[in-house]
């Protein structure tokens, strides 16, 4: 009983506007919204730019109208990007809070507009900091909770007693832990 016979509607939101509410009418499958089935719909709209959320729901009519929605994937034919919206919830008046509509935000990190810049910064940071993790170096973390150092030794020993002084004389890596 995870499928639905109710009419399903979707609104797609992007940086340039939204589609308004659109009924999902014709699936590429003979019967739509069945348990365990993936349905594919074509929705015509102006290009919305990068997508950030959708609102999806149904009208609650018909027998067995409750619906368990796993996820929605929108393929943008202009940019060839896939936008994933995870749900993993019921759209049912009798279950999971009684909502028959859900607002879902994009969860696919590959669609984040600044992802390439963030990846480049990560690589630059690692290049500058990786020497600290070479064999033979002792890592020390300062804990604000214990007001002492926690040391990770090259021989895989961990001194987690939180010594109050820096017993190695030189700190290769210090991190403030709450």
Automatic annotation (TrEMBL):
It holds the Pfam family PLAT. Residues 1-105 form the PLAT domain. It comes from the Eukaryota. This is LOXH1 protein. It comes from Pelecanoides urinatrix.
């Amino acid at each position: 009983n995870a499928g639905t016979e109710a009419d399903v509607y979707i609104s797609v939101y992007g940086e340039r506007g939204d589609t308004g509410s659109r009924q999902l009418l014709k699936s590429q499958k003979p019967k739509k919204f069945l348990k365990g089935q993936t349905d594919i719909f074509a929705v015509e709209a102006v290009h919305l730019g990068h997508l950030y959320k959708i609102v999806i729901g149904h009208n609650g009519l018909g027998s067995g109208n409750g619906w368990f929605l796993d996820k929605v994937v929108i393929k943008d034919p202009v940019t060839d990007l896939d936008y994933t919206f995870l749900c993993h919830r019921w759209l049912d008046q009798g279950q999971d809070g009684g909502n028959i509509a859900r607002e879902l935000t994009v969860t696919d990190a590959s669609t984040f507009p600044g992802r390439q810049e963030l990846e480049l910064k990560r690589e630059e940071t690692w290049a500058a900091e990786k020497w600290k993790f070479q064999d033979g170096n002792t890592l020390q973390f300062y804990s604000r909770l214990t007001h002492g150092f926690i040391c990770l030794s090259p021989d895989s020993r961990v001194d987690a007693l939180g010594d109050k002084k820096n017993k190695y004389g030189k700190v290769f890596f210090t991190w403030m832990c709450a």
